[in-house]
Amino acid sequence: MKVSVTHKEGMKFEAKTAKSSFVIDCPVISPVEYFLAGIITCSATDIVLLPKNQDKTVTDLVVDGEVVRNDTHPCKFNTLHLTYSFNSDGDDIMAARWVMASLETYCSTINTIRDTTAISYSITHNGKLIRENEKMISGGGSKIDMGEIESCPS
């Protein structure tokens, strides 16, 4: 994957990918807000595609994300809470599995930040709260000390 960003004027930048381009207009929408929107959209696409692979349909999907960041630089994400709300023709267990599969396996943006950010989620499925403030199984916002690992010399 390759992205090229070009300064246009003032605080406007154009991002070009192999497929398309878009304008990033700072400070109207900050790069960090674009980043968070990308993280949320990555997971949201999974919540549409995973059920589709099981001949199920998701409707009325809304994913909200709330981040707590460091007060000082670098102002990294400390915590991320995602709130999923959607309807489907699957049962509650399937709905929870779709979200967990996105978070733990398929969403590459979430899996990129999971070792430095404590990630939690809530799910409302067909109007019923089925998970509240659950934590991701992996990650959790801190490095895990695996001890010394023997490796090949560089």
Question: Can you describe what's shown?
Answer:
- This protein has 154 residues and is an alpha+beta fold.
- It has a domain at 30-135: GMP Synthetase, Chain A, domain 3 (2-Layer Sandwich).
- It has helices at 31-53, 92-106, 108-113; strands spanning 4-9, 12-16, 21-25, 58-69, 77-88, 118-125, 128-135.
- The protein has a four-stranded mixed β-sheet, covered by helices on one side.
- A hairpin with a 4-residue loop joins β2 and β3.
- α1 (31-53) packs across α2.
- Residues 142-147 and 149-154 have low confidence and may be disordered.
Keywords:
single chain, 154 residues, alpha+beta, GMP Synthetase, Chain A, domain 3, 4-stranded mixed β-sheet, 3-stranded antiparallel β-sheet, 3 helices, 7 strands, globular, disordered C terminus
Topology:
Blueprint: E1 4-9, E2 12-16, E3 21-25, H1 31-53, E4 58-69, E5 77-88, H2 92-106, H3 108-113, E6 118-125, E7 128-135
Parallel strand pairs: 5-6
Antiparallel strand pairs: 1-2, 2-3, 4-5, 6-7
Helix pairs in contact: 1-2
Give a short summary of the structure.
This protein has a domain at 30-135: 2-Layer Sandwich (GMP Synthetase, Chain A, domain 3), CATH 3.30.300. The chain is built from three helices and seven strands. The chain has helices at residues 31-53, 92-106, 108-113, and strands at residues 4-9, 12-16, 21-25, 58-69, 77-88, 118-125, 128-135.
